[in-house]
Design goal:
The chain is an alpha+beta fold. The protein is 67% helix and 12% strand.
Length: 410
């Protein structure tokens, strides 16, 4: 029965514990901004399909009815007509082909933009995840400190009862214990706040976080970020826009064939019927000879926009390179901090044990004991935080070299 009761208490926490990969997967499937960007992609697909359809011939059907109150000479009073027209552009100076290329580039840009946001969201969730882990480790250290203070306070109270300890010793321990309880409650609220903020990003309530680790980087190739790829595709689209505008200076050739049939009412010898049907074949040719530089200036404006975008792209490329370099340096720095904090923790634990023995033997006062306990607690928190910061540094490195973070979670 005791085992069953224990399982009932442990099961809820176990059932709702989620690792980093599960959180990222859920957020990717339920995030509103990702849904919005996906819909934008679908819109770009329709734009591309529309531009591709422009290559096909057009077919139009129509009709007309004309009624003259006072009939004119040689024209019946009522004329009915219907027509079918088929037309196709034989040459448009490359307008359609460049529109298709423009829409392909914009579709690709939209796709990279969506990928960039997904990776950015995964980075943000990962940082929050390990920051919460760091605060939770601080909570555990403070709880352990509270446990030790409580035990020591109870021990001193027993000595006080038999006259072997003073009231000020109890007061100092009680103050340290109460202050630590205050710290614990503050940390608990911080954890709650961080989890609430993470819940907003993910789209569901966060209870217990399972442990997750990031694979250490090893000979991982880097590539341009999705943001850069998106901007490059936008830049390409402007090239095609400029070519499309320039098509106005090139010949435009169109072929049309129109079949029309007629019917008449209120006709007589003075107002005879006309043709029963007629087929009209038309080949048109058009080229612009002068517009006072209107089209040329439009093209120049687009090319200037492209230059501005290319300058922005170069800055983002340079920023990515610097971020990769700093991310690698950060990993080295944190590894050094871990080694240092590990030594510090080991020394703090050793010093605490030694001072505790001396304190309980009465050779040092409780101030030395409390200092040693605080140093041990801080060293423990610092070490755990450094370990979690290393995980964050790995995540940031993978983000900057444009990798899918989920692939490196275990």
């Amino acid at each position: 029965m005791k085992r069953l009761a224990l399982l009932c208490l442990v099961a809820p926490a176990f059932m709702y514990a989620e690792g980093l990969k599960e959180l990222i997967n859920f957020a990717t499937s339920n995030n509103s901004m990702i849904a919005s960007k996906t819909l934008t992609q679908q819109s770009k697909i329709k734009d591309l399909e529309s531009s591709q359809s422009a290559y096909y011939p057009t077919v139009d059907l129509g009709g007309a009815y004309q009624s003259l109150n006072s009939k004119s000479g040689n024209i019946p009073g009522d004329i009915y007509s219907g027509y079918a027209k088929i037309g196709i552009d034989l040459y448009d100076g490359g307008r359609k082909s460049n529109t298709v290329k423009q829409n392909k580039a914009l579709l690709n840009s939209s796709g990279f933009d969506t990928l960039a946001y997904k990776k950015s969201l995964a980075l943000s969730i990962s940082e929050d995840f390990y920051n919460i882990k760091s605060v939770e480790s601080s909570l555990r250290a403070s709880q352990e400190k509270s446990k030790q203070l409580k035990a020591e306070l109870q021990r001193i109270k027993k000595f006080y009862e038999v006259g072997s300890a003073t009231k000020d010793e109890i007061d100092k321990l009680q103050a340290a214990f109460s202050n630590n309880v205050y710290t614990i409650e503050s940390i608990r609220f911080e954890i709650l706040s961080l989890k609430k903020l993470l819940s907003i990003k993910i789209g569901k309530k966060i209870t217990t976080l399972d442990n997750s680790t990031i694979v250490a980087p090893a000979n991982t190739s880097k590539e341009l970020s999705d943001k850069i790829k998106s901007l490059k595709e936008k830049s390409s689209s402007l090239t095609y826009v400029a070519k499309k505008i320039n098509a106005s200076y090139l010949p435009q050739i169109r072929l049309e064939d129109t079949y029309t049939f007629y019917d008449y009412d209120r006709s007589d010898t003075s107002h005879p019927k006309g043709l029963d049907n007629q087929n009209k074949f038309m080949l048109t040719f058009n080229i612009r000879l002068f517009d006072n530089g209107n089209v040329k200036k439009q093209k120049e404006s687009i090319l200037i926009q492209k230059k501005a975008l290319d300058a922005q792209i170069q800055e983002v490329i340079d920023t990515q390179a610097i971020n990769i370099e700093l991310a690698l340096r950060k990993i080295q720095t944190i590894k050094a901090q871990i080694n240092s904090s590990k030594i510090s923790l080991k020394s703090a634990i050793s010093a605490y044990k030694m001072i505790t023995q001396k304190y309980q033997a009465g050779s040092v006062d409780n101030i030395a004991y409390l200092d040693a306990l605080s140093v041990k607690t801080d060293a423990q928190s610092q070490y755990e935080e450094a370990l979690n910061n290393l995980q964050i540094s790995y995540v940031r490195y993978y983000y900057y070299i444009n990798k899918n973070i989920k692939e490196f979670i275990k």
